[in-house]
Amino acid sequence: MAEEEIDLREIFLIMRKRAKVIVIITLLAMIVSGIFSYFIATPVYKASTSLIVSRTQSSVLTNSQIQVQDIQTSRMLAATYSEIVKSRRVLQPVIERLRLPLTVDQLKNSVDVAAKDNTEIIEISVENSDPSKAAEMANAIADSFMENIVKIMKIDNVQVIDKAIPPTSKISPKTTLNIAVAAILGLMVSIFVVFLLEYMDRTIKSPEDIKKYLDLPVLGVIPEIKIKFR
């Protein structure tokens, strides 16, 4: 138990002795992360539009009451529609209409389609470095999807709930989170460096070091004399 207490005390003393190294490395890591997040990393914005899968217009005309079976069918179709949204048939017209310098696969990688749990709603999200472009692409994909779904599945039961608008805040990089992670990593690296320096430092600095490293008795200590010149 005594040895553990001594070891813990030594660890604390080593860290206190080289506190400047720990602080400097940690601060450098935070500064580098902040500079990268603010000035180097490309900001990414996400714009979303939502669609609802409802009953077909013909079914509305023949039956004004919403049946449970209709809702269940619409929910199942929502999952199918999510895959159709990212198909070449839907995305290629968007590329041509907006004159995007992208391939279908590149556009597909920037698009996320999610069917909300237990609802008939599909959300189409697009990520781009330009917030206005992200909103424009999301709306164009929704329009292309509604045009093509009529031809693909012979149905007209998809309507837009909310059109995408240019987002005001970016989703990446997350500057605060990046700096916090950098601080933790910087602290870990600095502690490793401190103990590495201490391990490599074999100089004798105190009477205790003589007994610890050389296993020799200390016969005497010459006190430090400070001379003041007048």
UniProtKB/TrEMBL annotation:
It is found in: Cell membrane. Belongs to the CpsC/CapA family. Residues 4-97 form the Polysaccharide chain length determinant N-terminal domain. This is Capsular polysaccharide biosynthesis protein. It comes from the Bacteria. PANTHER family: FERRIC ENTEROBACTIN TRANSPORT PROTEIN FEPE, TYROSINE-PROTEIN KINASE. Residues 147-196 form the Tyrosine-protein kinase G-rich domain. The chain crosses the membrane at residues 21-41, 177-197. Keywords: Cell membrane, Membrane, Transmembrane, Transmembrane helix. It holds the Pfam family GNVR. GO terms for cellular component: plasma membrane. Signal peptide: none annotated. GO terms for molecular function: protein tyrosine kinase activity. It is a multi-pass membrane protein.
